[in-house]
Amino acid sequence: MNINLTLIGQAIAFFGFVWFCMKFVWPPMVAAMAEREHKIAEGLAAADRANRDLEIAQEKALERLKEAKQEAAGIVEAANRRATQLIEEAKDTARLEADRVKAAAQAEIDQEANRAREQLRSQVAVLSLAGAEKILGASIDRQAHAQLVDQLAAEL
Amino acid sequence: MAGETQTVSEYIVHHLTNLTYGKLPAGYERYDGSIVADGGAWVMAHGGDEAAAMGFNAVHVDSMVWSLGLGIFFCWFFHRMAKRASTGVPTGALNAVEMIVGFIDKTVRDTFHGRNPMIAPLALTIFVWVFLMNLMDLVPVDLVPHTLALLGVEYQKIVPSTDPNITFGLSIGVLLLILYYSIKVKGFGFARELAMNPFNHWLLIPVNLFMEVVGLLAKPFSLALRLFGNMYAGEMIFILIAALFSAGVMWMVPAGLLQIGWAIFHILVITLQAFIFMVLTIVYLSMAHEDH
After folding, report:
1. Where are the domains positioned within chain B?
2. Tens digit of pLDDT for each residue in B158-193?
3. Is A24 part of the contact surface with chain B (CB cutoff 8 Å)?
4. CA A125, chain centre distance (Å)
5. Residues linked to residue B22 through DSSP beta bridges, in sequence order
6. What are the contacts of B23-27 at 24+ separation with CB within 8 A?
7. Which of B14, B48, B267 has its CA nearest to residue B148?
8. Distances (CA, A) of B126 to A32, B103, B134, B281
9. I want to staple B81 with a disulfide (CB 3.0 to 4.6 A). Which of A8, B97, B199, B226 is the partner?
10. What is the pLDDT of residue A142?
11. What is the residue-wise DSSP string for B151-188?
């Protein structure tokens, strides 16, 4: 319990350690901590900003989606309209074509019929002459009765 | 534990004796009957009587070594941590150190209103160093002294803060800082503060001076004695509990319980004393910076 030189040694050591701490411990420590604090604060702010940006982007995306939907609906509607129009046109063309084909066929049929009729007519003259010859038992002068036969053929 | 040949009081006295190296005065009769020659002699004291005879010309080797060792450990450890500190994620011991630094920084900000880059490192040094010195109190009282005794070192007090030299050494350092900053900040105002307070009349200057100087000196005294008293009393109780172990087998259990209980309580005491020493130092220096 004696007071002695230890006292002075301790006081000198005290200043030494305080000096060391002031020089080599405190400043780098506090600087690192402050810098980290700053960095964390910045990070948090950035996260906030990112969140806000995300919200805005989502809103924008939603808007774009709505627009796209509307656009798509418009396109579909136009396509539908166009389709019905095309169908109508096709129907018309088909109808016209059918009419035309029908008419052509009819004409051909008529032609064929006429031709058959002509043929028939010419053969009828021969047949009827032959028949008449057989009936009359005598030959008929083709020249003399040509008029009659033609008349008959024309009546067919 | 007390040796076979030791009485309890010898045991306690042995534990309270510092390992002292100092100068014995000429003509002093040593423990072995030899007489110190003219001019004195620098020797290791053998027992408290010789240490007392050395007077001021002595050093408590154990206090000094432990105190310096712990201070150097503090500097080394905190310096290493400071080098490791970066803006990245702090891990492990760095976390603890940063917590302490942050805590001290906040305390200094709250208490010290001036602007002085020395106060915070000073507070950190005081807090950690005093805490480490107090912490030695929790090392079982016989562990280190007994081990060293086996190695031939006679006395060993491993708690530096139970040595008034250590606590007064610290508080004298604080007093010098108070004086330095008082004069630096207030200049002549410091002298006027000493002379013209609390009675603002020239006739009462001696009274004022006396009161203010006593007030000024009371600061380091209270700092040093508070720390010393608390740690000395705590150490004493640890020694008494340790002595209780030697009282007989039936005392083992109560002594063990007492030891644990006091140690747990003491964790609070050592931290609190370190904190009080630090805060009061900040407060005193804050007062030194305030110009009235």
Report:
1. 61-288
2. 899 999 999 999 999 999 999 999 999 888 888 888
3. yes
4. 70
5. B43, B58
6. B23/B54, B23/B57, B23/B58, B24/B50, B24/B53, B24/B54, B25/B53, B25/B54, B25/B55
7. B14
8. 22, 14, 12, 9
9. B97
10. 67
11. TT-------GGGSHHHHHHHHHHHHHHHHHHHHHHHTH
Candidates B16, B60, B81, partner chain A, best to mutate (most A CBs within 10 A):
B60
In terms of Cα–Cα distance, which of B244, B260, B61 is closest to B157? B61
Mutation target vs A (from B116, B125, B170; most A CBs, 10 A cutoff): B125
**Chain A residues touching B121 at Cβ < 8 A:** 18, 21-22, 25-26
pLDDT at B2: 41
Tokens of B290: 């305030």
| B226 classed as catalytic | yes
Residue B1: band (very low, low, confident or very high) from pLDDT cuts 50, 70, 90? very low
ipTM summary value: 0.88
Which residue out of B30, B84, B226, B246 is catalytically annotated? B226
